[in-house]
Structures are given as structure tokens and as C-alpha cells.
Amino acid sequence: xxxxxxxxxxxxxxxxxxxxxxxxxxxxxxxxxxxxxxxxxxxxxxxxxxxxxxxxxxxxxxxxxxxxxxxxxxxxxxxxxxxxxxxxxxxxxxxxxxxxxxxxxxxxxxxxxxxxxxxxxxxxxxxxxxxxxxxxxxxxxxxxxxxxxxxxxxxxxxxxxxxxxxxxxxxxxxxxxxxxxxxxxxxxxxxxxxxxxxxxxxxxxxxxxxxxxxxxxxxxxxxxxxxxxxxxxxxxxxxxxxxxxxxxxxxxxxxxxxxxxxxxxxxxxxxxxxxxxxxxxxxxxxxxxxxxxxxxxxxxxxxxxxxxxxxxxxxxxxxxxxxxxxxxxxxxxxxxxxxxxxxxxxxxxxxxxxxxxxxxxxxxxxxxxxxxxxxxxxxxxxxxxxxxxxxxxxxxxxxxxxxxxxxxxxxxxxxxxxxxxxxxxxxxxxxxxxxxxxxxxxxxxxxxxxxxxxxxxxxxxxxxxxxxxxxxxxxxxxxxxxxxxxxxxxxxxxxxxxxx
Length: 500
Hints:
By secondary structure, the protein is an alpha+beta fold. The chain has helices at residues 2-23, 28-67, 82-87, 226-232, 434-440; strands at residues 103-107, 110-125, 145-158, 163-173, 179-190, 197-205, 238-247, 253-261, 297-309, 312-324, 332-344, 355-369, 372-373, 396-397, 400-416, 419-431, 449-461, 464-475, 479-492.
């Protein structure tokens, strides 16, 4: 009776919540969050009840053992029909496992859902510098021939009634054939804080824009955008830290995010990264360490969504990243972003098709760089250790503010079930500085560039994907390059739901 009452209460609360959202014209995102919360509560209740049943069974077996009666013994004078005994179930009928179900390990209250996504690419490019030249992203195709873009293991589940956990572990192979494993995400998140608050702690993708928080298998294209890889880095921004979000009580979906993370390493590209000792933006970058709260990386984001009609949804957001960088003493970086996402899907859509979506992101980076000269001893002559740029010249750069920016826009058209046509345009540029142009006029890290990428994707099922993409890539001072990539992907287990 307790279980039935709890389920009835949960169902009643869920129906009330859904009615309230309908009255307020709530967004699909809010409905999805409410439904997911209800599902988690229901699953937790089922696990708790199952645990209690197991305990009672053990107690019953123990009592019967002490009395000398086997658990399957019948009462005196009662005859059983063996045929009926073999056909009549003693409890809920167990159904067979389906590919849409998560792969689970554990039992009772400790359950972990497991899934694995493998993403691979094959293709070629006319560029001589594919990795780090035309393909800037850490998960982009990085060579002629075959690329392991990533094999991602995802673990997620309810820790207890107060927290849920998630971990993403990535295996990949670089262009030199070296294998490596990295921890992309591993975090703990609250599920029952009051006042629509939620706290996340651990290693996580920074809540900046739309693309930075997405794993490669959710991208609409083979590679990441130019502006994301140039300003946020090839692996995006992700580091250990803590994030607080607040679902604002408005008639439409509205959420605020505030976070603080470590600001060093290759996943903090524009901040306290040392860039593996290589010159970057005309300077040798150094990790100056952490001495105060001002040496942390701070992020803020506001996202909101509206239902324009029964079949159109619009989502917009603004983001900012603030933190120190390694380009000098007491220098910092500010990155600002704005994004918009629009989707059309008719009420008669089947399995998500047909649909049309448009996504655009713009970013601006203001990076303060300190004064620098590679003539370290002031002799006016360079020795072998001072020729950092390999041209035999002395490079003198004053303290200056470097401003870079970029934008991408992508269009996806799911014209029939399993088939999606896409088109993306990218552009990155900079505000020119006379002193910088004189010392580093041909620096590829800041030169203008644009790219156009049409593609076609086929989903044979929800567990596989095949994508063909062409890139027309025009780089200032370099010229035009062409690339064609064939991507294929597999999914084992039911993956976690992604944000709208």
C-alpha cells in the first residue's frame, strides 16, 4: 500500500506539474526536465521497493529454514498441479532486454547505466597541415586515411536520493598513431535542492554557448566550428570546478548558470595554458600559478526558450568567460558569446522527422598580452635558444590588447526519416594591431579564414550513423584547400538524453 500511495502521489504531482506547464505555455525543455525528474523518482522508488522485497524474502527463507520447512514446501493436505506450477508466474513477468534499454550493472539501489559511442572518420585533404592547420579541433579528422575521433564510455546513474553522477571516458588515437585515454567529464549533481537550484561539482564541460557543452557524437557535422576551436581550444573549455544553476520561475524556460573552475591546462586554451612550451600569439606563455580567487576561471550564462507556435521553438543564450592568461604578468582574457537556436517540427512528425533547425553562435575574445622580446639577454643577437620563431629575427611586442572574433551558422534539414542534409558556414577574424602585424603579420593563430561545409547524414537506426562532408576552406596568406570526410558511428546501450 505504501508503494501504491507513493506512486499515486508521484503521478498526481506529475499530472499537476504538466497541467501547470501547459497553462503557462511552457517549453519542451521544461517538460522534458520535469518528465526526466519524475522518471528518476519512479526508478528510485522501484529500486527501494525491490530492495525491501529482497530483504523480506531473505527473512522468510531464514525463518522457514529454522522451522525445517523448505521455501518451496506446500502446506499439509494441499496438492499441487506440476503443470500449473510451471506455468503460473510468481511475480512480475520479466521481459527480454531491448537495444533501446541501457546496459546496467549492479543491483538493488546501486545501478549504473553504461553506454559506448565509437566515432571514426576516413578521408583526405589538399592541405599540407591537416592537424592543427585546417582541422583545429581535438576530435576532428586529423590525417589522410582513417581517424579514430573518439570511443567514449559513458557511466551514469543515481547515487542516492540527493545526487546523480556522470562520467565520460574517452579513448582516441592521434595522427602519429599514439593511443591515449582522457577523462572528459566526471561530476556529481544534486537532484533535490529547493528554489529550483542545482549544483554540479567535478570535471565538466564549461557552460558556454551551445557547442562547447556537446560531445562529438551529438554534432551536426564531422568537425567542430572554427570559432570554437580558435578561441576556446581544440578540446573546448572543461576543467575541475563547481557550477550553480537556477531555473528562473518565468512563464517560459529561463535558466542562469554560474561556475568557477581551474584556469590552467590545454583545456583552458585562452587562459593559463602553457601551450606545451611553444610560442603562441607572439609570446612564450607560462603558467603563473594560483595565488588568489582571481586566478580561477569564471563563467556565467543565461539561456531562455520560447514556443513560437505548436511546431516552432526558439532558444537563445549569452555567455561570458573571465580569467587570467599566461601571456604575461597580471594579464587576463575575456570571452563573450551569443547563440540562437531555432527548430521547426510538425505535430505529425514521426521519430523526429521531418524537421528544420538553424543554429548560430558568435564569439569575441579580448586577450591582454604582456610585453615580450625573444632577445632575452638584450645583446641584440639571437642564439639558438632564443630563435623561438625559427626565422632568425628579434621579435619585440609591447603590452597590448588582442581582439579576435568569429561566427558560425549551421542549417539542418531532416527531410525524411533517417536522412539529414546540412550546411555550415564559418568565419574567424581579428581586429588588426599595427605593432602585432609588424612583428607577427603571418601568425596563423589570428589570420582571417572562412569555410563552407555541406554534408549528408544517414541514420540506419538510432544506434548508427554515416555522414559524408565536404569542406571548402579559404585561409588568409595560404589559399584554398578542399577536404572530404566520411564519418561512421556506432552506439551500444541507450545514451543519456541531450539538451534541446
